[in-house]
Amino acid sequence: MITTYKIDIKQPATPVQQQERAQILDVLRGLAILGILLNNIYGFSGYGFLSEEMRQQFSTFNADHFLNFLQITFVEGKFYSLFSLLFGIGFSIILIRNQQKGINPLPIFYRRLGVLLLIGAAHLYFLWQGVILLLYALVGLLLPLFRKCTNKALLIWASVFILAPIAIDAIRLWLKWSPGDFLQPIGLSIDERVGITEENWRTYIFKEGSGFTEWWNWQQTSFIYRYSSLLNNNRILKVLGMFLIGLYVGRKMIYANLDHYRNLFKKIMLWGFAVGVPASFVMYLFEGDEKFIPSSSLGMYDTVFYALSVVPLSLAYASAICLFWIKKKGITRLSVFAPVGRMALTNYLMQTLIASFLFYGAGLGLGQKFGLVV
């Protein structure tokens, strides 16, 4: 299964030019940033913390409910998966470019990961718990382990990691155990000390009169609960799986030879939508039932249909965009997303800064003042 690393494409390997990168990767990255914002706005605005009874108090409840359906079905998980795919492609570009120059790519890659790790840790602890940068840096450390795998092996490993949560959650259900639960008592003890309780946590940083103190109290434990959740929902394996698909795409240089892979894009798009859309509908039905692994066997529906919906739809989105790009020969309004993609990290960080100022009591305090429809 392990062989010497090589670039496996039907055309001669050539250095990736800036224009090639800008033509599709930056557009996809910009769209992924937008999708991540649409997903994160539920946390930023505090709407995601509200109970169903609290949401019913908004005059826009029915419209909000429909938007919530659209978000869960077509957005949730799909765009962080696309972002993960692009991260894997970026790793492959570092490998290819530097190997062509006779340079060992690993020190460069690890140096970039180190910077990302520091930024991600600071973002997570000081700004917002929903950030994924630290997780990317940590999981990214594993990528070089797969750099000598054959292309076939990469896809096999990616499939194993993406589907593994189904088997893992079945074991968790049997053992009545969750890997992230050891963090919960730590978070609860800190919450108790700063005055966050079971009764007030939903509105703590959005309530009238809250400010910097409440926001900082919230930050003391939010990252603990975040990583407890990431461990419990097997996010590490899901991200690693998408990284490996991205590494495969980068090796084949599919992004630089879009027209050559037109038929592949068509197949992925058709199968992705055919499997992903129905599975996403079912995922929505079970997401709000509050039945979770390991306390309820019904939580397995969440795991199964998340696996069957998120990756297929994410790949279908990417394929549809590539097909549209081919048809328009790159002359399309989608180009507006390219500048966003070229500054993906900056735009990702700015999402947090702007949203925190808009929604939290330490800023304008608009959070939980209205529903999703404004």
* Tally of DSSP β-strands: 0
The structural class is: mainly alpha
Rg result: 21 Å
Amino-to-carboxy terminus distance: 54 Å
What fraction of residues sit in β-strands? under 5%
Order of helices and strands: HHHHHHHHHHHHHH
Main sheet summary: none
Show unreliable segments. 1-21
- By oligomeric state, this entry counts as single chain
Instruction: Count up the helices.
Output: 14
Q: Residue-averaged pLDDT, rounded? A: 89
| Helical content class | 55-70%
Shape: globular
Topology (SSEs and partners):
Elements: H1 18-44, H2 52-55, H3 61-74, H4 78-100, H5 105-126, H6 133-140, H7 151-175, H8 184-194, H9 212-232, H10 235-252, H11 262-287, H12 299-327, H13 338-342, H14 344-359
Helix pairs in contact: 1-4, 1-14, 3-11, 4-5, 4-10, 4-12, 5-6, 6-10, 7-10, 7-12, 8-9, 11-12
Describe this structure in words.
The chain has 374 residues and is mainly α. It has helices at 18-44, 52-55, 61-74, 78-100, 105-126, 133-140, 151-175, 184-194, 212-232, 235-252, 262-287, 299-327, 338-342, 344-359. Helix 4 (78-100) runs antiparallel to helix 5 and helix 11 (262-287) runs antiparallel to helix 12 (299-327). The longest helix has 29 residues, at 299-327. The chain is globular and about 55 Å long.
